[in-house]
């Protein structure tokens, strides 16, 4: 499935985890995707690209285990600190 895509659509696909670049979680970047290179001093022309989006949709909960593990780890550290302080 090939479709014409612009920077905003590409960022949405990346944030949703559809491109396989990262887990499905929004990127808090303030600048639109097509201006990132320009802000870094390497201005380039941005062209809409044709991109094959993988058909596989891993689901929106794929990255949830990572955040759950981080919260559990922080809870364990907090409990250990309280236990050692007493």
What topology does this entry show?
Blueprint: E1 2-5, H1 7-15, H2 36-39, E2 49-52, H3 64-85
Antiparallel strand pairs: 1-2
Distance between the termini: 61 Å
Helix content: 40-55%
Order of helices and strands: EHHEH
Q: Write down the Rg.
A: 19 Å
Write a compact overview of the structure shown.
Helices cover 41% and strands 9% of the residues. The protein has 3 helices and 2 strands; from the N terminus they run E-H-H-E-H.
Word description of this protein:
The chain is mainly alpha-helical and 86 residues long. The protein has one domain. Helix content is 41%, strand content 9%. The chain contains three helices and two strands. Strands 1-2 form a two-stranded antiparallel sheet. The radius of gyration is 19 Å and the shape is elongated. The model has no long low-confidence stretch (mean pLDDT 72).
